[in-house]
Amino acid sequence: MKLKERGWSDQEIINAEKILEKEKEYDAHFSRIVFWSALIVIIFSNMLVSLGLIPFLIVLNSWVLYLIIILLAGCIGFLYNLLITDIGHLKKKHHISAGIIIPLIAIANLIGMVLVSNKFIRDLQIKNVQHNPWTIAILFAIVLITPYIIGRIKFHFKEKNQGKVINLTS
Length: 170
Hints:
Elements: H1 2-5, H2 10-59, H3 63-85, H4 92-123, H5 133-162
């Protein structure tokens, strides 16, 4: 209506709307590409960290090992949260799938790496206990996904609070 008041014809308004819709489609397509690229980066970094944990798994068996696992998982978790939450035009299904895929891959990676380190401990007869792969993998996955979950909760409450109008006169 404002454009009509400014002297725009119906055809000009329709053309302007079409151009704006194309930009939205392009932005959504580009966001999906960035989303899947970010997932690949996170999966790759998760694999690198899993491989890097093997020496620690072989020689450590105390709270220091768990602290290292927590720190590494937290670093990847913050990177993951940064990459995923700053992408616009993502649908809820993208966030849900990312919240499921990444922890499952992390669990699989860590189980494999713990099994490899346990084999090294056995074969090299190192004086260290063999680690429970499920405990370490689940700890890693929980710490990895925690920054993302906290970010989603903050986003939900921020979005919910933006919908409220505060009446200062009452």
